[in-house]
Amino acid sequence: MAHRTILTERQRSVLFDLPTDETAMLRHYTLADDDLEIIRARRRPHNRFGFALQLCALRYPGRLLTPGEVIPMEITRFLAAQLGLKSDDLAGYASREETRHEHLAALRDLYSYKMFTGRGSRDLKVWLERTAETARSNEDLARRFVEQCRATQTILPGITVIERLCADALVAAERRIDARIADRLDDEMCSRLDALLTEMADGSVTCFVWLRQFEVGQNSADMNRLLDRLEFLQTMAVDRTVLSGVPPHRIARLRRQGERYFAGDLRDISGDRRLAILAVCALEWSSAIADAVVESHDRIVGKTWREAKRVCDARADDAKAALKDTLQGFSNFGSALLEAHEDQASLIEAIQNAGGWSSLRGLVSTAAQLTDTLAADPLAHVVHGYHRFRRYAPRMLRALDIQAAPVAEPLLAAADIVAGTETTTTRPLTFLRRASKWHRHLNHDDGNRLWEVAVLCHLRDAFRAGDIWLTHSRRYGDLKDALVPKEVARATPKLAMPFEPELWLADRKSRLADGLQRLARAARAGAIPGGSIEGGVLKIDRLTAAVPEEADAMVLDLYKRLPEIRITDLLLEVDDEIGFTEAFTHLRTGVPCKDRVGMLNVLLAEGLNLGLSKMAGATNTHDYFQLSRLSRWHVESEAMTRALAMVIEGQSALPMAQFWGAGQAASSDGQFFPTTRQGEAMNLINAKYGHEPGLKAYTHVSDQFGPFATQTIPATVNEAPYILDGLLMTDAGQKIREQYADTGGFTDHVFAVTALLGFQFIPRIRDLPSKRLYLFNPASCPKELTGLIGGKVREPVISSNWPDILRAAATMVAGAMPPSQLLRKFAAYPRQHELAVALREIGRIERTLFIIDWLLDADMQRRAQISLNKGEAHHALKNALRIGRQGEIRDRTVQGQHFRMAGLNLLAAIIIYWNTKHLGQAVTARQRDRLDCSPDLLAHISPLGWAHILLTGEYRWSKKVIKSP
Question: What is the DSSP letter of 62?
């Protein structure tokens, strides 16, 4: 039987090589007293050594030593020291083949090891087939199998046997899942699904391709196109129970495959698999399109409010000229009346002389109009969006399966009236809060248009807050269902808070009391570093730089020592050492990409913002269709994340990286990227960056300069909720202890959650003197600080919501829902969420403690400054890399934009790895020249330079590494 390769050489090495690092040898190869007694029963030194070595190999990695295998010197020295022997004593071992077999028999008898044969092998094969359904990759299944053999003390079979067994188990599991889904479909549903591949939509593409071509819309036309697809899928009525019992990652993989296949290719696939892909896509796209409908409505409401504000502002600007003339007219009349009064003349004659009664009436009328204009708010103009809403809103409300919490039931009833499912002449206002500004405007509503606009605007807010939700939705699902149970929350080890609120509150009270006393003493003594409190007012001085003068000269010298290199050679060198291209597995088979140069071309096209067509013209190895095929079947979000993690882990292990930090601190910031007006995905306008549309890449950078996480977010959103995504959803992020951010990353909710999860959150707050402290008992505050107090902490709210606070934090740790999604819900409508209010109160406590520590700790301020500067320098590297298309992101889809940002981040990480490695070599050369290379100076070096890297021109690859795809 032919060898079925599912692992790379690097992956095999991880599973089967003998360990050589000290930690692993101490863990696996430390011999116990009874081990030594058994080993010393062997007569000759080389036999004792060989017996001990085979025992260690059986324990880890769990295999037999092969004839002629070269044993690493680290292992021989480690065992020789324990056995009281010399490393050379191993040389004569097993000169007789019988000795090896005798030792193996003795080891099996003494330690109960067994070969991979008989009933034991059959049991392991059954276990392997069962486990294959939940395995997330080929490597994952092979690793689980090896660990199971170790747990059952079964000696590992050969690597070819393991790969064949795993490959067969994966194929069998895939077929079982396909058959399980297909068997739950009746004949009529099978016919409907197959028809998606033959029936045409819009006269140009099949229904299958038409259905998957959707994005979040910007206007009513986009919304109606989304609703066309949603209603089409709803008429198919695929039962969601067909996916019961199927692991979520299997569902996601089937969906991703369906999004890669063309209709003709999918028709050629066997029945069960084709039907499984079609059923999964129909159900998953239905949920995704419903989410896109809600998000599109959110954007349309936002657009309506922006237009209303512009109208309001424009009218106010237009009124300025009339306001000046009106004030001048009143000034003339007033002067005339005052003069007549002082001269005791007739006031009537004074009015006549100043312009007459008709002129005065005109001024009064104009003044009344100006008063209304200047006092108006955008609510007075949102009714102009009525026709935009009317073109899709009734249809949207009928199509969406909206559920509501009790607090939002009046809103849902009002929505039924807008949808036309409820016929009534009354227009209830019970969905409005008592103090809402809408009441005043609705009293003058003519034709109920403003009432419908009010309902649709409140629907947007309710979706954001989670007061209403969609069934089977990932983004807009029921918040209560998303939170993990209390039992799971209590079992979550990462939670840095007790299960009883009284303990946590007592600790915070003690820390606040101590912190206030320390700050008051420093204020009295004038000893606040870089600041002062005078008359209850906080004043902060600008932090000065602390970079040694010698650092600049050393940086220039080190970068001069770096070799000039083409970007293609740089990528090959880093991949030789790390193997990051192995992360890009085939979506169908799970086998790592074999066309290494082709994959590097794809990644380079993404990272340099060239696109595949431009890269095909600039490289000497692949054409557009070859690159497109590689991109379609190998490049996905998870693969990008795995590759980035490999590069970050490799860079952090380099000796040079240790001078910059321990990998336990990070900063995060958003970087704006302009897009073209043709872009349709997240190209929203943020006035902070001008009047052109764009998006932001929100990136976490470790203190070792590694960009370990990045997200593509709309330019208009608040960055703060995304901080926890990078910390909790990556392995590198979970190692972080101090997280720095600029003002845009600061909210009370972020303060709360980072503290509850054990992160030290240190934002640089630009307007810190305006922030206020919150205390449990403001009356006990030292008099020097009374001007800084903002209010009292609502302790009962925290206590009563403590179980749900635990659940929310544990949900973020579990990854059941992205933390940013939960935080956005909490921040959307805090008046209706006790949990959101409780988190805000916790955040106020943590923010108060942070402000006290910040004011008293100049070192903390400097660490934050240094870390945030690393992030800014990282932005400069990315700006230099995105050379294609004038730096604009022109992809039309969210997925395309995400891949472009992820590719740019991965390319930056690869360059940082290469620079870190070669800067270390330059430091060694500098030390040989007896030049200063003290750790204090090396801490100021950055691996973010690019002047020595040739980024432009043709992208040619060495003939030694070019292989045909």
Answer: -
Nearest CA-CA partner of 393 in 433, 359, 421, 431: 421
Q: Can you tell me which residue has the tokens 């003069």?
A: 339
Tokens of 274: 């084709």
Distance CA 856, CA 850 (A): 10
Query: Looking at the predicted structure, is the pLDDT value of residue 682 above 50?
Result: no
How do 468-470 and 402-404 pair as beta strands? antiparallel
What is the C-alpha separation between 933 and 956, in angstroms, rounded? 37
Asked whether 640 and 903 are in contact (CB, 8 A), the reply is: yes
Question: 10 Å Cβ neighbour count for 946?
Answer: 15
Q: Encode pLDDT of 45-79 as tens digits.
A: 888 988 999 999 999 999 998 888 889 999 999 99
pLDDT score of 831: 47
What per-residue confidence (pLDDT) applies to 373? 64
The helix (H) or strand (E) run that includes residue 329 is: helix 271-342
The predicted structure's pLDDT at residue 683 = 46
Output the six-digit token pair for 698.
């929100």
How many CA atoms are closer than 13 Å to the CA of 604, on its beta-carbon side? Answer: 30
Pairing of strands 949-950, 565-566: parallel
Name the residue among 549, 559, 550, 653 with its Cα closest to residue 933.
Answer: 550
- State how far the Cα of 647 lies from the Cα of 710, in Å rounded to an integer: 14
- Matching residue, tokens 């086998």: 591
Backbone phi and psi for residue 92, each to the nearest 5 degrees, phi listed first: -90, 10
CA distance 668 to 725: 11
The torsion angles phi and psi of 809, rounded to 5 degrees, stand at: -65, -40
**Rounded (10°) angle between helices 45-59 and 73-83:** 120
What's the chain's length in residues? 965
Q: Which residues fall within 8 angstroms of residue 348, CB to CB, at 6 or more apart?
A: none
Residue-wise pLDDT for 606-622, tens only, equals 999 988 999 999 998 99
β-sheet bridge partners, residue 696: 672, 713
What are the pLDDT digits (tens) for 407-460? 889 999 999 999 987 777 788 889 998 888 888 888 776 678 899 999 999 999
List b or e across 337-348, with b for residues whose CB sees 16 or more CB atoms inside 10 angstroms.
eeebeeeeeeee
The DSSP code sequence of 805-830 is: HHHHHHHHHHTSS-HHHHHHHHHH-G
CA distance 648 to 657: 11
Tokens of 20: 């050589």
> Would you state the pLDDT for residue 421?
79
Cβ within 8 Å of residue 510, ≥6 positions away:
none
Residues 6 or more apart in contact with residue 745 via CB below 8 angstroms: 668, 669, 719, 720, 723, 763
- CA dihedral of residues 716, 719, 720, 725 (deg, nearest 10): 120
Alpha-carbon gap, residue 699 to 901, rounded angstroms: 10
- Average pLDDT score, the chain: 88
User: What distance, in Å, lies between the first and last C-alpha atoms of the chain?
Assistant: 25
Closest to 920 measured CA to CA, from 657, 556, 702, 663: 657
Q: Tell me if the bond preceding 803 is cis, omega within 30° of 0.
A: no
Q: What are the pLDDT digits (tens) for 495-523?
A: 878 889 999 999 999 999 999 999 999 98
Alpha-carbon distance of 25 to 821, in angstroms, equals 43
What are the residues whose beta carbons fall under 8 Å from the beta carbon of 371, sequence distance 6 or more?
none
Write the pLDDT tens digit of every residue in 15-47: 999 999 999 999 999 999 999 999 999 888 888
pTM equals 0.87
